[in-house]
């Protein structure tokens, strides 16, 4: 079952975030992530939204956590954390009950 990394945040340090964006790409490719959404100006419909919305798809929860906990991603995660304010959530893909 697909597993998703969902992030919604405001970039507070653009130069540092740019370093993160450059460094994270190879880690995503290495661990088989699919970028589903990468939008820096999502259109709010309801509720409060931050300026950046990122949704990554992985083939499974195990694959997602393998990427997140990998030495490659852990080497760059602090750039995102120090360059933004917001939140990150994990969510499993939805399967219609039979």
Question: How does this model look, in words?
Answer:
The chain has 98 residues and is an alpha+beta fold. The protein has one domain (3-92): Alpha-Beta Plaits, CATH 3.30.70.100. The protein contains four helices and four strands. A four-stranded antiparallel β-sheet has the order 2-3-1-4. Helix 1 runs antiparallel to helix 4. The mean pLDDT is 97.
Write the layout of secondary structure elements.
Blueprint (H helix, E strand, L loop, with lengths): L2 E9 L2 H17 L3 E6 L12 E7 L2 H8 L2 H4 L2 H7 E9 L6
Antiparallel strand pairs: 1-3, 1-4, 2-3
Concise summary:
This protein is α+β, with helices and mostly antiparallel strands. Helices cover 37% and strands 32% of the residues.
Under the CATH scheme, which architecture would be assigned?
A: 2-Layer Sandwich
- The CATH class is Alpha Beta
How many domains? The number is 1
What is the number of E strands?
4
Rg over C-alpha atoms, rounded to the nearest angstrom: 14 Å
Structural category is alpha+beta
Poorly predicted segments: none
| Overall 3D shape | flat
**Could you name the CATH topology?**
Alpha-Beta Plaits
Strand order of the largest sheet: 2-3-1-4
Total number of helices: 4
Average pLDDT: 97
Largest sheet: 4 strands, antiparallel
Beta-strand proportion: 25-35%
Percent helix among the residues? 25-40%
Give the N-to-C terminal Cα separation: 15 Å
